[in-house]
């Protein structure tokens, strides 16, 4: 049974609506905040800053899997688990997700 907090955090429809009307810069901000919120839920009570490293905050392989699964559910973007290592901060992963989301939703079938 999900809590009200987790239902709100996993509201993909609201996220898609916000992303649909956002500029590229706003989309990156939204994705960064989404990454931070998901990571904070997983690593609670850890405070996650934009430039804090996932692994230094205690992310394990199991919680990395949970993070990518949650983000894929929210964004409908395929996220390889290695992305957590390649983009190890909320700012970097948010940037990656914003570009991947734009590519997936551009209508040309391109992927990031």
Automatic annotation (TrEMBL):
Coiled coil: none annotated. Residues 25-101 form the Carrier domain. InterPro entries: ACP-like_sf, PKS_PP-bd, PP-bd_ACP. Gene3D superfamilies: ACP-like. One of its GO terms (biological process) is antibiotic biosynthetic process. SMART domains: PKS_PP, PKS_PP_betabranch. SUPFAM superfamilies: ACP-like. GO terms for molecular function: phosphopantetheine binding. Keywords: Phosphopantetheine, Phosphoprotein. It holds the Pfam family PP-binding. This is Carrier domain-containing protein. The lineage of its organism: Bacteria, Bacillati, Actinomycetota, Actinomycetes, Kitasatosporales.
């Amino acid at each position: 049974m999900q809590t009200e907090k987790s239902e709100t955090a996993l509201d993909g429809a609201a996220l898609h609506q916000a992303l649909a009307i956002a500029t590229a810069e706003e989309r990156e901000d939204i994705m960064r905040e989404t990454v931070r919120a998901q990571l904070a839920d997983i690593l609670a009570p850890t405070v996650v800053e934009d430039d804090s490293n996932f692994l230094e905050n205690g992310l394990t392989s199991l919680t990395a899997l949970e993070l990518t699964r949650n983000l894929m559910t929210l964004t409908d973007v395929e996220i390889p688990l290695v992305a957590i290592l390649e983009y190890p901060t909320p700012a970097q992963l948010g940037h990656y997700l914003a570009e991947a989301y734009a590519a997936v939703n551009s209508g040309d079938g391109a992927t990031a």
